[in-house]
Amino acid sequence: MAPVEVRAIQVEAAIHSIELEGSNVTSETRADADSYVAGTINSDELVERVRARYGLS
């Protein structure tokens, strides 16, 4: 399986888990996740962006 496929599966699983817990994923976070799946940012950058968005940096 190609890395992009693995990242896509991981992102969809994480989003599904968040939604099952009753939370929503913002369009900004989905855009960041799409960038991660495409390989334009790495997982550290994805986490950094999401943490900054919610004031957790």
UniProtKB/TrEMBL annotation:
It holds the Pfam family VbhA. Residues 10-53 form the Antitoxin VbhA domain. InterPro entries: VbhA, VbhA-like, VbhA_sf. It comes from the Bacteria. This is Antitoxin VbhA domain-containing protein. The lineage of its organism: Bacteria, Bacillati, Actinomycetota, Actinomycetes, Micrococcales.
